[in-house]
Design goal:
The complex is a heterodimer of chains A (about 160) and B (about 160). Chain A has about 160 residues and is mainly α. Among the domains of chain A are: about 5-10 and about 30-40 and about 125-155, no CATH class; about 65-105, no CATH class. Chain A has 5 helices and 3 strands; from the N terminus they run αααααβββ. Chain A has helices at about 1-15, 25-45, 55-65, 70-85, 85-105; strands spanning about 115-125, 130, 140-145. A two-stranded antiparallel ribbon of chain A has the order 2-3. In chain A, α4 crosses α5 (about 85-105). Chain B is an alpha+beta fold. Helices cover about 25% and strands about 45% of the residues of chain B. Chain B is built from 2 helices and 9 strands. In chain B, the strands form 2 sheets. Chain B has a 5-stranded mixed sheet with strand order 2-3-1-9-8, with no helix packed on it. Chain B has a 4-stranded antiparallel sheet with strand order 4-5-6-7, with no helix packed on it. Classes of the chains: A mainly alpha (about 160), B alpha+beta (about 160). The interface between A and B is medium-sized, with 30 and 34 residues. β1 (about 115-125) of chain A pairs antiparallel with β7 (about 125-130) of chain B.
């Protein structure tokens, strides 16, 4: 069966002129093949071709190699701003310097002596005792006043 | 079995070492908890007038002005005494009116921030706590047209 099928196919091809030694028909067949190839190529151009990876990578590489902004660009911008509108540069710089000076003065200020005192108890046979102190001002010494009821000057 | 016994002996030795080390570390701290203190007692005769400031009182001028305001204008020095005392030490100063002013150093307060002192002047007895290097005054005794002011300053002595 299978053999018979092959023979029939071969006979059909021979009827179409394929594989026949006739040169006139072979030329027609060749022209027809060329025409078919042209039509196929025009309909699906490079359908099975590999994408141009090299060209893609070249684009990426070109982007990677783009020159970085120069370090002096910001400085040049600042200089330009200083020439055009000096207040915008000098005001913040002055504020920072002032803040630094205030900070240094604050940290290096002499500490006030602490005369903080707590009078835990007092005992007196006569007279009046008055504790004079200001809790909000620990540098001010406490005074323990003692005045006798009828104090007479001595000496 | 021997290894186990050795292990328990090691643990016991470490425990004993830690207890002894802890005790030794606490002991000297207890002993040095109350350092020597330098007590200065300055007796000033203050009057309303005439304006005067004794040479040795000049360093205290700002403090006196802030403390007593314009109550006095004349500050004359009667005496100045300075002594180093240990805990329980007493500094006695004779007063011009015949009495004595005494300061007793009672050690360092528990929070280590204050020095504990007692003062005795006539019938007045008081207990105070002051900062290391702090100053306080006791005043009120009238004498020769003015008032006796006693300033007490105490500061620890670094050994």
């Amino acid at each position: 069966m299978w053999f018979r099928g092959i023979r029939r196919r071969k006979a059909m091809l021979e009827a179409d002129g394929v594989g026949t030694p006739d040169p006139a028909r072979a030329g027609d067949v060749r022209m027809f093949r060329d025409l078919s190839r042209l039509v196929r190529d025009a309909a699906v151009p490079d359908a099975t071709a590999v994408p141009p990876f090299d060209e893609c990578w070249a684009g990426v590489e070109r982007r990677l190699r783009e020159p970085e902004p120069e370090a002096g660009t910001a400085l040049r911008g600042l200089r330009g701003l200083l020439e055009r509108r000096p207040v915008l540069v000098l005001a913040p710089v002055g504020a920072m310097v002032l803040a630094a000076v205030i900070g240094v003065l604050w940290w290096t200020r002499p500490a006030l002596p602490s005369n903080q005192c707590f009078v835990d108890s007092y005992d007196v046979e006569s007279g009046t005792v008055l504790i004079d102190q200001d809790p909000d001002r620990p540098e001010r010494p406490t005074v323990i006043w003692h005045e006798a009821d009828s104090q007479e000057e001595e000496g | 079995m021997d290894a186990r016994r050795l292990g328990s002996c090691g643990r016991a030795a470490v425990l004993v070492f830690l207890v002894v080390a802890g005790a030794l570390s606490i002991a000297p701290r207890r002993a040095s908890a109350d350092p020597l203190v330098r007590v200065r007692v300055i007796v000033i005769h203050a009057k309303k007038s005439p304006p005067f400031l004794h040479e040795q009182v000049k360093p205290l001028w700002e403090t006196l002005r802030k403390t007593f305001g314009d109550r006095f204008a004349s500050y004359d020095l009667v005496s100045s005494t300075e002594r180093e005392v240990a805990r329980g030490g007493r500094v006695e100063v004779p007063m011009p009116d015949g009495g004595t002013f005494a300061v007793v150093y009672r050690g360092v307060a528990q929070d280590d921030r204050f020095l504990k002192l007692s003062i005795e002047h006539g019938t007045l007895k008081s207990r105070v706590r002051i900062r290391d290097g702090g100053l306080f005054f006791q005043a009120g005794k009238r004498w020769q047209g003015g008032v006796l002011i006693v300033g007490v300053r105490a500061s620890t002595v670094s050994r």
